Structures are given as structure tokens and as C-alpha cells.
Amino acid sequence: MRQRGSHRAGTFSAIKAAGIRLIYEHGYEAMTLRMLARSVGLESGSLYYHIKDKQDFLFRLLKEINSRELELYRRKADRFPTEMAQNFWMAIVAWTVCFVVTILVSLVTRPRPDQELVGLVYALTEKPQEGHLTWYQRPVALGVIVLLMTVALNFLFY
After folding, report:
1. Claim to verify: residue 115 and residue 136 sit in the same structural domain
2. What is the pLDDT of residue 3?
3. Band of pLDDT at residue 77, cut at 50, 70 and 90
4. Residue 142 and residue 84 share a domain
5. What's the domain count of the chain?
6. pLDDT band for position 76 (cuts 50, 70, 90)
7. Taking residues 19-26, what's their average pLDDT?
8. Which of helix, strand or coil describes residue 78?
């Protein structure tokens, strides 16, 4: 006979799998707890026994992904031949966690209209015209002057 805790854990893993599928298909904003309960075969009230709300579900999902990656790192930490190898694998795990969290956040948030991104995205921002500026006020000319002075000072003080 199954223990109550193991049954609850099994139900939550089914809820988690269905939630990930629903977020992928419909997006986080469009997914409802009623949809989630129906896809698992639970009543809406029974779902609240396992999760409080959508934010609780997302938080627990991200927490589990993060703890799984950290546990993987901890298990491998004892097997590293050198500190450099340990740092390498730590960087791989950190990158993977960041990548997964970035994907989940992009699935959860809605795209912003182009008007909100002006000034933040280079391609959407109007480029200033430099035709009316004198040569010494233009950024390209100043950049070339600074570069030439840097090279000259390096030769001088090398």
C-alpha cells in the first residue's frame, strides 16, 4: 500500500509534467489552474491541496530545477581531479541554470510592443545624424584621435 506522502509526491510530479506541457503549449499567462487540474484528472479543489496558485507552481518548479542542478554539482564536486576542473564544471552548471531560467522566464512573460523597447534595443532606436557637427565633435573622429594618442604614448613609454 502506498504511503500518503509518496502519493502526494507522485501527484505533484504529474502536475509538474502537465504544467510544463501547458506552459509550452499555451504560455504561462494563458494557462489556468482549471486547465492544469483537468489535464491531470483532478478537481480544481484537489489541485489547491498541492499548490496554492500559479506563482507557487512556477516558484516550486524553478526551485526544483535549481536544486537538481546544484545536487548534480555537489555529487561531482568530490570527483574532480583539480580545482580547475571543478571550476569548469561549476561554470557549466551555472550556465545551464541561467539558460533554463531564461527560457522559463521568456515563456512566462509576454512580448513587449516595439514602442516600449525604443531606447533599449539598438535596431528600434533612431540614430542621431552627425552631418551638422564639425569634425572634432563627431564620435568617430574623437575615437581615432584617442586611438592614435594611445599608440603614440605606448611607443613613447614602452
Report:
1. no
2. 47
3. low
4. no
5. 2
6. low
7. 86
8. coil
Kindly state the cell numbers that stand for 153: 604614448
Q: Which of 59, 45, 46 is nearest to 16 (CA)?
A: 59
Taking the C-alpha atoms of residue 8 and residue 4, their distance in angstroms, rounded to an integer, is: 6
Question: Is there a contact between 124 and 118 (Cβ–Cβ < 8 Å)?
Answer: yes
- What burial letters (b/e) apply to 14-33, b meaning 16+ CB within 10 Å? ebbebbeebbeeeebeebeb
Alpha-carbon torsion (9, 15, 18, 19), positive or negative? negative
DSSP track, 105-158: HHHHSPPPPHHHHBTTBGGGSPPPP-TTS-GGGSHHHHHHHHHHHHHHHHHHH-
Q: Same domain, yes or no, for 132 and 122?
A: no
Q: Are residues 57 and 79 in the same domain?
A: yes
CA dihedral angle for residue 121, residue 122, residue 125, residue 126, rounded to 10 degrees: 180
Domain that holds residue 104: 4-127
Contact indicator for 60, 50 with CB cutoff of 8 Å: no
Q: How many helices (H) and strands (E) does the chain have?
A: 7, 0
